[in-house]
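Figure S4 source data
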Amino acid sequence: MTETLYRELTLDRKGMDTEARVVPASLSSEIEVPRWFGREVLVHDAASVDLTRARDGLPLLFSHDHTQPIGLAENVRIEDGRLRANLRFSNNTRASEVWADVRDGFLKNISIGYQVRKYDEGEDDTVRVTDWALLEASVVTVPADASIGINRGQDDMENPNMDDKTETRASGKTAGQGSGDVNVIDYQAARDSAKAEGLVEGQRAERKRIDEIEGLFTGTRFTSTIYQDLKAELVRSGTGIDAARAQLLALVGQDSEPAAAGEFRQDRGTVAAGHDEQDKFAAGMAEALEVRVGLITDRDAIRDARKSELFSMNMTELAREYCRRNQINTSGMNREKVIGQAMTRAVIGHGSDDFANLLENIASKSLLVGWDEAPESWQAWCRQGNLPDFKQASRTGLSSFEDLEVVYENGEYKYGSFADLKETIQLVTYGKMFNISRQALANDDLDSLGTVPRKMGRAASRTVGDQAYNIFFQAAGLGPTLNQDSTALFDAAGHSNYLASGSGAAPSVATLNTAMTAMALQSDPSGNATSLGIRPRYLIVPEALRATAQTLMAATYDPTGTAGTLTPNTVNGTMTVVTDARIDANLATSWYLAADQNMHDTVEVAFLNGQSTPYLEQREGWTVDGTEFKVRIDCGVAALDFRGLYKNYGA
């Protein structure tokens, strides 16, 4: 269940958009796939498929190589018992090469990587996976299951082995095929049937072999690590039952008095508990630490965690218990030495239950909590995008199309035109390091697990927000120079979206109407539309103007009016108020309007391959005694166009 599994499927190039480099695809279905453990069926419903990783776009790789990202699988969803997505190829060199081969039909296969969490075994060798997580999608070279692929529909599901022709396996004939070919096709169908039957029989034999080996290791005397490791090796290597029995007897002969799980042996140290006990210990330790650092806040969960003996243990005691369960003798060691022994991962097969990994998981969760709880406002008005690499990328916007002309009888249609608006965006890496020292853990100081990474998560969120709002503050508040016309983002003469010092004023019905009119009258660069009719969606103000802005959006009458001369508030409810203290620190009188980022180009915040949360990396300490952590986030920010933005200097 911890293994990453793959399904390779045949692609179909129908429905391809060659200009946008986007292909609609069917990623997986509920067709049976032979595995060594049985005929696997992936259940496709909302309760069974975890699409968390696909929320902001699933990584699209080449041949499952994580060093070769070639794009994103977007809009991943479940439809008609299938997993569907739109494959969008990026512009990097490798992606362009793969895209060319897909477009021209040389690469025809796609694969998904996924992890099984829960399954049900049937009596007929069918294994129904009822809880599984989608990890990535890949363009690959060798297919295993042609039931799905790009733009496949219901007709293909009924004939899953087909590409561009319809074949009926039962009759052994291909549509439109003459009777002279029947014997050839029948032979092929018979061979396929024989192969399938042989595969099923082989699966049954393999499961019987594993069950027999498992049966050799029943009883408490075989729960120690030395025997469990032998069992795992016998299963993995395909050893027959007779040879397995001989190897077990040989090991028993070397250790005529094997100890039970957890029993202390003078000659061999502590014998480790079985795998199930180790998993329970790891889960219990993680739960106890999560409560202590404040990650678990539910009262019932906290009450249950307090019942465990692990909750009362300090870090040194937890480390000593971890070592005891993994045959690491800590007799006579001081606190720092015990922590050091646990942190060195001295156990074979370092897994997710290793001491250092457990600490990393706690720190990572604290980091994400800090990221989520940071009060950031840029997400409200900025567009979020993806970049496949660190090269400078172009963002192309299109002006309005020319007005349609009258076409008289027998007249010719004329080609219209529009102008490209190209701005650039590039990723930048932001990061810091921190460490968990042996001394801190020995002193039971959990700040390095909870408080420090939590604050670093907030810092990462704050850093992204700083870059977003810095678009407003560059060049003394005029913003970056745009490529399309070599003019600053906010410019009174060229862009008609700025009221400078001396002309500006605080938000009011009058000043907002002036700003809204200026935005509505913006024209496209080709002159096709003299007024685009853009409407602002957000009123972005400093904290000093929060009350003023909220009053304007909520008041029925103009707040500046007097009793007896009430005037209707024409801007009531027209915009969402967004406040940020960064504007106060830069210029507490200024305020901005922004159009709907999904309808108009304004400001984009892009992340590497859609990874919009900070990433935590761990390594054994070299300059410090303990474990070092590196926190990083890759993001880039760019202004895409001036027409959907407006600035008033204020009074």
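Figure S5 source data
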Amino acid sequence: MFPILSLFRFIPPLVGRRGRLLWCAGVTILVSLAWGLGQALAEPEAAAMVTLGDRPLFTIQARQSFPSVAQRAQRISARLEAAAQDQTVELDQLSLSETEFGPTLYAMDHLLMTVSQGDAEGTGLSPQILAKQHLIAIQQAMGQYRQERSAEALSQAALIAFLCTLGLTLTILVLANAMPQFYGWLDRQQDRWVPNLRFYNVEILTANQLTTLVQVLTRILHATLLMLLLLFYVSFVLGLFPATRNIGQGIFGYAGRGLQGIADRFLGYLPSLFTIVLILLLVTAVLRVARWLFNNLQRGRLTIGGFYPEWAIPTYRLVQFLTLAFALAVIFPYLPGASSPAFQGVSIFFGLLVSLGAGGAILSVVAGFILIYTRAFVEGDRIHFGDVEGFVVEKSLFVTRLRTIENVLVSIPNAALLSSNITNYSALVREQQTPLTLTTTVTLGYDLPWRLVQDTLVAAAQATAHILADPSPSVWQTSLDDFYVSYQLRAYTTHPELLGQIYSELHQQVQDHCNQAGIEILSPHYGALRDGNASSIPATYLPADYRPPFWHLPPRG
């Protein structure tokens, strides 16, 4: 740079001293940049590997006429591959010749590569000696390349692969047959050799739980062994064939990197997992306390004013659902991938499906809870709904099942029950011991004394099974019609489950007692000419000397 500085004195004096200094600084900067660029361009490019098939041969350092060393190495590798696949090229036809560019390797008349002085830099060898070494390496690799891809070698590899496949299949079958026998033997030895695991007086694991734990660990070991056998098999069999050797040699690398990635992700997820475990433990404790509380309320060991025992289990289920829903909402942000758009999209999609398709189900669930807390009926009650009458055999959140008198099971949606009237024959008997009133109506003529009718009907009710004496049966005259009087018999029972049987027997007793009292039960609008007509009372209730009366007509004039 000193000769350049000596030129400063030739700068025109008109520039001035300050101008000379600025001009000197600019020239110095330009020279420094040019020197640095020349150094960067002069730096040698990284060496590249020349390969044949899947085997590395040697490295080259000079790019020669190629854009980069890597592209030159790829071109040389392609030439070697073509020469190795050409069976007309013998190994002794690989030659080395001196050219104006340096030692050059040929396969017959085909150029393979030229060794330049740049390739020999740093090796301590001359280009001629380095070219001879490359020639020897190419001949050995080409011979091995052809030998591995010969029909004999491929047939031998196929035979070995078949034997390995057969051995793996037999091993899997043996393990598949041996493991169930081992599990059965472990179950048989459970009561003989497997003890309960205790710490002082606290039982940590029972023999059954310990046996189950050993079985689970054995299954995991079995699955791990099968996976390792499969990996070894795939790696070995793929390594037998040149075309798949790279894949076979990289199997364990792929598996290792996959396991490493899983381990890294798992370790990174541990804080969130710990938070989820704590939330689940807290939820479990809350549900256990709730289960204990509502079980005691159901059994009557605890009482709360205005809270009925039949509300205990439904209320626990409602508390359980709300607790789990709250826990899920709290846990959701800690789930793997919860913040990803795909996870959020799937969640919205399923929420939309539930909201559109479960409207009727949700309505039935709400109706089920309303029916429970309004105490419309309980299991075992006899109810009447629409044209269905029967006994409640099951109450669920969605439907209520009735067993009819004919022993037919009818399922009614809770939403339908909530939207109509329900007649319950058992509620007052069960809760307040108020008897159920049975009513039946008999229509009799005006010629019968009403006191006789009343006494007869009351006696018939008292003679019927399951009719209460207190309160006693009674008879009401509900209407005075044109042809008859309507007598309504009212009796009481505490057996609504036998309602049909009681009514049938009551009607039988009414007929018997009326016949015994000489009362004819006439149907409405019954008309007859009585003078000379026979009585309508059954013959068994008439006197033995009974004779039908004759007609008595008044004389003429």
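The chain has five domains: 2-42, 48-149, 153-240, 363-429, 435-528+536-541. Residues 1-15, 35-43 have pLDDT under 50 and may be disordered.
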